[in-house]
Amino acid sequence: MTQATIPTCIPASATLGLDLGDDRTEFCLLDPNGDVLERGGVATTRAALTKCFRALSPCLVVMEVCGQSAWISRLAEEHGHRTLVADSRRIALIARGKSKFDERDAELLARLGRSDCGLLNPIRHKSEQVQADREVLTARRVLVEVRTKLINHVRQVVKLFGCRIPACSPESIHKRALEHVPDCLQRTLKPFVGQIESLTGQIRSYDKEIARLARQDYRDSAQLEQVGGVGDLIATAYILTIVDPSRFRRSRQVGAYLGMTPGKRQSGKSDPQLRITKCGDRELRRLLVIAANHILGRGPDCDLRRYGEKIAARGGKNARRRAKVAVARKLAVLLHRLWVTGEVYDPFRQAKLRGEPIPA
How far apart are CA 102 and CA 106, in angstroms? Predict the structure, then answer.
């Protein structure tokens, strides 16, 4: 790969645009007047980018959010540069451009970052330690998904031969499955059942690690676990996603941040009702919906449950689904409020204010 000459003696107010790729990163350097000083490419490796950042005087480094942007932005900041990681949904000029190539994308990023940073809706990457801790939750989710696929396969194959595995939890199915598997399938499905048992053990190990994180490294999770349906997993995931609760001036903003508020496309008199944006952290949104499903299902009576039941009572094809999303959004706001204030959770606070009956 041909390496471009790395420029030196750059004014402190220069802007460096980076178009990140898995193998090669294109760069474009603008001077304070917006003129191109240098353009080229470097390998997307820590050594090559370290050499590049070290050769530059402090400047603004602009890049688009992607899988590589977290460690590259941290690397740039270690060498004294300011970084701006742009939200990819804000750069239609690049994504929908009719003349799109990497060298031009790097220049456009630099010019957009130089003109007005707010237009790019800058992304705040998490620290390396927080990102590493989040991978514990991700690893657990992947193992659960693999185990679910194996369980579904075993159940489906057994059903094709006129047998059924009785209803049981995923944690105990490996103890009961083989006795209901036909003899002709024992050799075929026994390794699957063994894999399910092994995955269950690994998932339990991750559960213990998540519990350790909640008790030792992220002790604020105990404040969130006051709410029924919120355990170590959801509380830790919430803290590792939000990280800094003070970034939100109002707790209600958390619902929009997690993509659980309806989108807006208002123009003149037209203001159609849209679905939720789904623009936030997908995994935390999924966990909050799971908690909402528990609250509306087997959970005890509380304000959240009554709120969801009122929405579900309106009827309609998707009333129950809308109720779950609404409860999940309200739960996200409530958790932030408890985190910020340190209050003791009162499950009937709103009911008391409205004078509604509450259980003894």
Answer: 6
Residues 191 and 296 in one domain: no
Q: What whole-number distance in Å separates Cα of residue 310 and Cα of residue 349?
A: 17
- Which residues are bridge partners to 267 per DSSP? 270
Question: What is the C-alpha separation between 298 and 295, in angstroms, rounded?
Answer: 6
Question: Could you give the CA distance from residue 176 to residue 135 in angstroms, rounded to a whole number?
Answer: 32
Residues 6+ apart with CB under 8 A from 251: 333, 334, 336, 337, 340
pLDDT tens digits in sequence order for the chain, 360 residues long: 334 444 444 444 799 999 999 999 999 999 988 899 999 999 999 999 999 999 998 999 999 998 899 999 999 999 999 999 998 877 766 655 555 667 788 888 888 888 877 778 888 888 999 999 999 999 999 999 999 999 999 999 999 999 999 999 999 999 999 999 999 999 999 999 999 999 999 999 999 999 999 999 999 999 999 999 999 999 999 999 999 999 999 999 999 999 999 887 877 778 787 888 888 899 999 999 999 999 999 989 999 999 999 999 987 778 899 999 999 999 999 999 999 999 999 999 999 999 988 887
Residue 143 lies in a domain: yes
Domain that residue 349 falls in: 237-265+274-354
Q: For residue 360, is it within any domain?
A: no
Helical segments of 213-281, H only:
221-224, 232-242, 253-257
Q: Rounded to a whole number, what is the distance in angstroms from the first to the last CA of the chain? A: 74
pTM beyond 0.70: yes
Specify burial of residue 70 (Cβ count, 10 A radius: 0-12, 13-18, 19+). middle
Helix (H) or strand (E) holding 61: strand 60-64
Query: What is the count of structural domains for the chain?
Result: 3
For 324-334, letters b (16+ CB in 10 Å) and e give bbbbbbbbbbb
